[in-house]
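Researcher: Structure prediction, please.
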Amino acid sequence: MSNKPVRAQAKGSAGVTEPQNSAVGEHVPVKTSARAAATPQGKVSAKKPKSVKPESRLAMVRRARRINRELAEIYPYAHPELDFRNPFELLVATVLSAQTTDLRVNQTTPALFAAYPTPEDMAAAAPEDLEELIRPTGFFRAKSRSLLGLSQALRDNFGGEVPGRIEDLVTLPGVGRKTANVVLGNAFGVPGITVDTHFGRLVRRWKLTEQEDPEKVEAEICAIFPKSEWTMLSHRVVFHGRRICHSRKPACGACPIAPLCPAYGEGETDPEKAKKLLKYEKGGQPGQRLTPPPDYPGLPAPPLGGAVAAP
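Model: Predicted structure follows.
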């Protein structure tokens, strides 16, 4: 037998390792798999975990509707958190609620409605007087222009009455679909989805939509739930977002719907620590309304100048 070594393939070639000595002194190429050759020292890389099967639309709809049923049990008292006695007051309060808390609006509107109880009264208000009354809500000059404009439109175009159609409401200065849906759902009993910052954040966190535009969010969520549920769904989701599923520090460890949430773990998961993050009646604090509904289990909010509840 010849003692001439067999020429080995170049180091690093796929399927071949470095030549090794045989029992009789010959250099014999040892074949390995391409995967082993591609890894350090010929070790086989660990298997990748199996990919999770994407949730079907049917499964998503079932999960979404179960979330709504669970929220109905958690918040049987869910309601609009703006104080109002008639459609005009709700319309004005909703316009004022932009970029501020419902609490601040509720602390501001008693004096406002005492001075201007009707659209005709507000339409005739001096801008500087109106601005001073609504100053605590922020952006008071822009909001004053909207209130004067919508009051004048109600007086001139709708006989001093708030219209009960979304097509009419969105023609009023300062009124978009969100405000219109709030008014229709809570003053006229017309079902609607209200996409505010809390609602949009939660339905995206729950993987019910990927949309960012409020109107697209509204359309996709409306397609998931029965129309009869739209208004109360909005209240329940907003309640949950304000009390438990916060933007920066969601209280995952104290969340009753955690098993249904794809985002569980984004926030505090320790139950005791999570409890300390709860707000309003869930955290033993006053609510946002000065005059809450009779079935509300928490404390009413303090008037302007009193102790402030958690935002």
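Model: Strands lie at 20-21, 27-28.
Researcher: Thanks, that helps.
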